[in-house]
Amino acid sequence: MPGRTKKDEPTAQDTNMEDAPPSAQPEAEEVDTEDQEEVQEEEEIEPQRVRILPGSTDTAASFEFVDEGHTVGNALRYIIMKNPDVEFCAYSIPHPSEPKMNLRIQTYDGLAVDALKKGLADLQDICDVVTDEFTTKKDQFNAEHGIVR
Amino acid sequence: MDGMDYDPMAMDGDSEQPQVKISAVLQQADKTHVDFELSRTNLSFANSLRRVIQAEVPTIAIDLVEIEVNTSVLADEFIAHRLGLIPLDSKNVGDLNYSRDCDCEQYCEQCSVTLNLHAKCTSDDIMKVYASDLVTDGQHANSVGKPVINDPEGLGCLLAKLRMGQELRLTCIAKKGIAKEHAKWMPTSAVGFEYDPHNKLQHTDLWFENDTDPAKEWPKSKHAEWEDPPQEGEPFDYDAVPNRFYFEVEAAGNMEPDQIIQNGIRILQQKIGGLLKGLDPRKYGGEEEPDFDGPRSPDMNLDGSTTPWQDTGYQTAYGGGYGGGQTSYGGSQTSYGQGSQSSFGQDGQGSYGQGGGGSYGNMTAYGTTPYGQSSWQ
Fold it and tell me: Where are the annotated segments for Disordered (chain A) (predicted)?
């Protein structure tokens, strides 16, 4: 056995060289995945939470929202349906244990993405109005009833 | 967004924006209620508001408990659970960070409040330990994180009872969180939500036994007198939609109820704002599938010549004995630069075959390395 190992020694370099590319592969891949993880960590600072699902076209698109649910989904669905350019809008939560919400938009005219952006902006406007309304009405009520807060 | 400049609020039946009517802010000693009517809006939005108020308004609650001594009859985790459920003053919750977003390692005074409890029974009488016995660290100028005490004796909730010689010494770390994660972060104890008190829309069944009076089985709520009762023989209105919503928000005590509602709307706006922000910088081109997973972007890999797999990986493996191989690799890179991926693969193989001899015959591995496929494509 010792002799054999000695015999192998001179060829060892050659075999090493031969083996080099395949043995380097996992090594390179390891570096690769590590780097990917790093990149992903960097990405997590501002994760992209909306994506277009495959099979979508300009005027008929399905969006997938991560970490959103009925709270945004239903209100968004309603406000997008209000858009006269929108033919169809619906949302679903495909599985309760996945934090995902899918939204389908089909438009008569214009991009589906624009309808989505318009819907989100409209929803923000409604929130603004309700906040203002609530604040003024609360102050009014408190003043009328002599409540000091 | 061209061609979509309609007014969403003018689309509803009466062309007016949502309206809020505060019906009662109960002036009790604890100030825990706000009743209001939200009208001229739709069920979806009203329900979003209810959901966000109940589950996504951040408060502070004890999240970590370090128990030093516990010789009481209650188990550690039992006491830790009870501590978690104590309402803590969250009026200034905005001053705190979420612990996971904070720069610190585990927790710090910017993302947590520390409360200490040390109680030992030294008398024959049974000693009661109350929430008021929790002492905050005093690192925060305001009352944030202090246990909420509303009872006239000023004791707070009962935590445990100790007999002679039993001792309880522990440190609690209170963190900011939302009720979606754990119910202990709920700002509300109950939110009443009602619409259509006369059930004109038939959204509920209001089932009753044959021999009982439905009016007695289903007494009208106090909101019923706010709306017109159905007329005798009135036909069902198929186009009717609910548009008056009655909220009765009851706060748990850690926050004032109107603050809960205002924070709730703000959080809803932040959610929407975050989505808009994610959508706007990127121009979706219909079928364009943005690369969310996998290597970030091609230009990043091309620019960053310092990326590990370009330098270290290759040079350690081939650098020494493969001088010729490297130059020929360089040549193949130019062919890649000319823009044809396939010529890269062929060139790379061919030049290796020439430079390195027969042993490189099976060097197709080069074609499948990150060079050829995943990183530059």
Answer: 1-54
Going by pLDDT thresholds of 50, 70 and 90, the confidence category of residue A123 is very high
Chain B residue with minimum CA distance to A117: B276
Interface probe for B, chosen from A134, A145, A147 (most Cβ of B below 10 Å), is A134
Residue A2 belongs to domain spanning: 1-47
- Distance separating alpha carbons of residues B335 and B352, to the nearest angstrom: 14
CA distance B140 to B176: 14
Distance between CA A136 and CA B22 in Å, rounded? 10
Which pLDDT band holds residue A16 (cuts at 50, 70, 90)? low
Lowest-pLDDT range of A36-40, A52-56, B55-59, B72-76: A36-40
CATH value at residue B26 = 3.30.1360.10
Q: For residue A93, give the CATH number of its domain.
A: 3.30.1360.10
Among B48, B289, B321, whose Cβ lies nearest the Cβ of A17?
Answer: B321
Q: Are residues A91 and A113 in the same domain?
A: yes
Identify all chain A residues contacting B364, using CB atoms and an 8 Å cutoff.
none
Pair (B63, B146) in one structural domain: yes
Tokens of B155: 């004791």
Give the E-state strand segments of chain B in sequence order. 19-24, 33-39, 59-70, 112-120, 127-130, 135-136, 158-162, 167-177, 188-195, 244-251
Kindly give the parts of chain B with pLDDT less than 50: 1-4, 10-15, 29, 282-377
CA A60 to CA A107: how far, in whole Å? 6
Task: Return the H-helix or E-strand segment holding B376.
Answer: none
